[in-house]
Amino acid sequence: MAAIKRSAPKKIYEGDYLFMKSYVCPVCDNKLRIATVKAGTARMIGQDWDLRPIHKDIDIQKYDVVHCNKCGFAVLKRYFGVLPKPHKELILKKITEQYDPLADPVGMVLTYDEAMTRYKLALLCAAIRQVHDSELGLITLKMAWLYRAQKLALGDDVENFTKAVRIKYDGFLDYEEKYLKKAMDYLIKARQTEEPPIAGMNETAIDFLLASLCGHFGKFDDAARLVSGILQSKQSSSSQKDRARDMLDEFKSKRERV
Fold it and tell me: Does the CA dihedral 120-121-127-132 come out positive or negative?
């Protein structure tokens, strides 16, 4: 009996998850085509301590900015929409007049450097427009995630890195910490002044994220207070409370080592 030949599984590429979505720039009315992740295609395989989602074969965070290469306006897709006239005027005056168009990416796939340039523009545009702290917090959190992804892509054998790779690793780590700290500060202000959902997160999710960030930066009393709120909340599920207890135990261990 002849052996049955089995075809090799199809190799999945990052571009297979993407399509070009149409937008109209709310500042200059330029028609845009933005690489976007196809709904339901990217499979989540994990989550970091600060809620960073991990997907198989693609980092979806790279594709979360709508950017106009004519006027320089950029914004997270969650916040894309009609802009008030004063906001348009601010962008035209403070961004567009000095803006140099970015080089077009090769195909739909963005490099991390190309993605980060778009995030930096989104952060600048958000600051100029004086948006809510929650929007600034979400942008800086995602920027920290992108730097972490680049750091992790270098591998985990840090002790055996070459000098050049170690310099890159340390640079990514420094920027990750810088933007995590900014995210924590913005989101703490947002929690104090805005009503949930905050940056798309309900009360339990935002408090879990803030507890994680506070614990990471050694603010253990604030972290414990936030965890206590999660444990006492009727809105928190049993699994969320279990995760919160585990996090609290981890913080206690860290505090004892300090």
Answer: negative
| pTM metric for this prediction | 0.94
Backbone angles phi, psi at 163, to 5 degrees: -60, -40
**Nearby residues of 218 by Cβ (< 8 Å), 6 or more positions away:** 254, 258
Please state whether beta strands 74-76 and 18-24 pair in parallel, antiparallel, or not at all (unpaired). unpaired
On the question of pLDDT at 76 being above 90, the answer is yes
Tokens of 239: 């699994």
Instruction: Give the per-residue pLDDT at 252.
Output: 82
Tell how far CA 55 is from the center of its chain.
Answer: 13
Could you state, in order of their start, the residue ranges of all structural domains in the chain? Answer: 15-201, 202-258
Distance CA 251, CA 188 (A): 19
Whether the predicted pLDDT of 1 surpasses 80: no
Token pair 């798309």 is found at 200
